[in-house]
Amino acid sequence: MTNLQHLTQEIRLEVVKAYIYHELSSLTGNASFPKVENLIEKCKRAKDSKDEVINKECKEIYELFYGLSLIYKRKFIAREVTAENCNWNRGKVKLGDLILSTDIDEINGTRGKTINELVNNVNNIKILGKNAVEYIKKRINHVDDPIIVIKRSDNGYEILDGNGRALYKVVEMGFDINQEIDAFMGECKGSPKNFYEPWGVYHFMDEHFKKEIEENKCTEILNKINEMLKKKEEKAKQ
Q1: Could you tell me the CA-to-CA distances from 32 to 10, 17, 35, 179 in Å, in that order?
Q2: I need a labelling partner for 214 at 20 to 30 A (CA). Which of 120, 168, 170, 232 fits?
Q3: How far apart are the C-alpha atoms of 30 and 230, rounded to whole Å?
Q4: How far from chain centre, in Å, is Cα 112?
Q5: What pTM was estimated for this model as a whole?
Q6: How do the domains of the chain map onto residue ranges?
Q7: What is the pLDDT of residues 183-234, one digit of tens each?
């Protein structure tokens, strides 16, 4: 990677912190994580430093972010959050403008639909109401955490994290899709570029394909990767 100054931006680190806190709080029940704060402050202090220093000082907080989002929750959101050409701010987003990025049990084809489309069906409203009751039992302390969204069209924002919170808010606000909720909002100028690359992934590949790499067997490596992807798809369907 080159030009790493963007990784030290305060707003970007706020997005990272919000995500980490949401997941760790849900797991542990704790409200604060001083060691995470220390990692964030260490990264901030690297502002205006050379790339080698930024990479060293920011590595741990971004590796933690990738570990929780990509490995633990299987969410590929870190690319947009860490990309140099994706800008972030915190504000309010209208419920009706949100695009779902997940499937909902008992409702077909929700991924890619707007909440506006979803609530135009009486049966969907009943299901969402029932789901909200169950959601609040598990996440009562986290329903007001800001969601993370990325702009996809003139008025549409895809939810990168927070589908459950957004849908709960729809029910809580009486299915009024003109209501707004707290969000970190991103907008990319083209495809995400110069995003943070987790070294753990490269380490895994280096060990997993060690023999093929030593023997320069590129075709075998690609075949193994394809096999891994197929297994991933099969597991996702289970």
Answers
A1: 19, 11, 9, 29
A2: 232
A3: 38
A4: 16
A5: 0.85
A6: 5-86, 90-188, 205-237
A7: 999 999 999 999 998 876 665 666 666 666 666 777 776 676 677 666 655 5
Residues 6 or more apart whose CB falls under 8 angstroms from that of 120 comprise: none
CB 65 within 8 A of CB 20: yes
Q: Is 202 exposed, middle or buried (0-12, 13-18, 19+ CB in 10 A)?
A: exposed
Encode pLDDT of 25-80 as tens digits.
988 988 899 999 999 999 999 999 999 999 999 999 999 999 999 888 989 899 99
Tokens, residue 25: 């709080």
* Helices marked H in 46-185: 51-66, 78-82, 115-118, 122-139, 163-172
Closest CA to 188 of 101, 114, 98, 77: 77
Q: Domain spanning 90-188 has what CATH number? A: 3.90.1530
